[in-house]
Fold these 2 entries.
Entry 1:
Amino acid sequence: MCLRNLIMVMLVNPMGIDDANILEKVKCMTNILWQDGNQNFSKALHSFSDELTELDQIIRKMILESLGIEKYLEEHMNSTNYLLRVMKYKGPQTSDTKLGLSTHTDKNVVTILYQNQVEGLEVMTKDGKWISYKPSSCSFVVMIGDTLHAWSNGRLHSPFHRVMMSGNEARYSTGLFSIPKGGYIIKAPEELVDEEHPLLFKPYDHVEFLKYYYSEKGQRDQFAMHTFCGVPQVYI
Ligand SMILES: O=C(O)CCC(=O)C(=O)O
Ligand SMILES: [Fe+2]
């Protein structure tokens, strides 16, 4: 079991599919799970991922446009792959609240979450308060990850979030994660760095960062990105 799964050990069972927007890649996974490959399931997962990939790109385009740096659009879109994670959180069978998924920030670019009617997702506000998300069948949660926080030189914030569970019902959720390709160097565009906005993170490779994040030290480090490549700030 990898460390990523160890932190999820409490109530959640995740399954991840790399490149879920490519049908053949989804089939590789469903062929392992079902003898006949379960075509309906693989098609449903693929078309869901495909639609969310489009949504991810619309969101990222809006962000780049709002920051006035559309010229990086193509590079930005080409720098990522997509992972779909499907998760089941067991109901803890008690009215006490139990930790389903521990507090973390996402490490990727953008995450799009969708879930059934069972509540549990909580997001931390900037003043440190937890707010809970009330799910609805027609809403998605968009979460900014550490990569976009670093790339935007802090203009976008990657919030701490967690899942808290109570009661008997299982919570099912899915997340589509846009993830930087290995070897692609994440570096804030020069347009976003100036005297008022000094560089927050040194350029880095996401795969190298993940090696640190999944190390024993990294797993205990809530500010892993800062430790790994943060630029110490001098306040005068
Ligand atoms: O299940 C959820 O809604 C959240 C999952 C999550 O935060 C994650 O996989 O990073
Ligand atoms: Fe998350």
Entry 2:
Amino acid sequence: MARTTADITVPDLTGKLAVVTGASDGMGLFLAGRLAAAGAEVIMPVRNRRKGETAIATIREWHPGAAVSLRDLDLASLRSVATLGAALRDEGRPIHLMINNAGVMTPPTHQYTAEGIELQFGTNHLAHVALVAHLMPLLRAGRARVTSQTSVAANSNEINWDDPTWQGPYNAGRAYSHSKIAFGLFGLELQRRSEAGNWGITSNITQPGIAPTNLLAARPEVGRTRDTMSVRLIRVLSRVGLLGTPQTAMLPALYAATHPDARPGRFYGPQSVANMSGRPGEQKLYSNLRSEEDAARMWDLSAKLAGVSFPA
Ligand SMILES: NC(=O)c1ccc[n+]([C@@H]2O[C@H](COP(=O)([O-])OP(=O)(O)OC[C@H]3O[C@@H](n4cnc5c(N)ncnc54)[C@H](O)[C@@H]3O)[C@@H](O)[C@H]2O)c1
């Protein structure tokens, strides 16, 4: 079957400063590459410098002269997030665009961040909440658009209000959904708070469909050494054009972060759940993301757990 290729036009981003998390691999690498190709200067905070250097070399091969640079960040440590925040505040440059893209999915064992918080909730959600809080003066100065990557997994399971950091009984799939519901609620609440408090930033959320990336693949560093049957199936479906690739799956985030038609407080994804065309569009909010009461509750809880505060 022929793959339908779809793409979007990215406006000229000359003079804009962007921050993209998780840009050493998968969708983040393509996101950073496309922003740089449009003229943005892109800061890529990475956990693994060696992989980061390779990513930079790849982007420069695609787009010679791309203005991309690395910073150190381990999202599994709130101290590391605070250190990056302080370093960027010291640099003092307004940020115009931020894509909260990094993530982990279903580690093979119950793992925790440096602060003892379940790894997926800590990495996918709390660390990004903290990063946004630490960067708030720069985001406000740049009247930034903040785009946060959730998942189709936010459409199943529910928030574990009884044990949000998963100290008790654990299910990795439920914890992944929990992290992505929490993060989706955060991205929507960020828009509401910014609007109410005149912070001058906007926020929207995205889901990329499904694409074979390291997120799903065998990853020895987290103790998984073989692709599961379902991962092999995803690879095959992607190859024949029935699921996305990293290049197409990142399009909703690219659209939400840059396109003049993308609106604050909205949810963008591929036009079909299977990401057959890869063309992004606005999506109906998953029921898990609709409650403003849940969003406000998660906001307060997350700020407390992350030890950060936001403007009034
Ligand atoms: N691939 C899919 O099918 C799919 C589906 C739904 C949602 N998503 C979401 O899309 C986003 C991008 O995922 P991807 O598929 O490109 O995966 P990926 O594994 O290729 O990339 C994830 C990135 O996050 C970074 N990261 C993970 N833990 C980190 C840490 N502790 N500190 C710093 N960086 C860290 C990784 O180094 C990597 O660069 C994730 O948020 C993921 O949850 C992916």
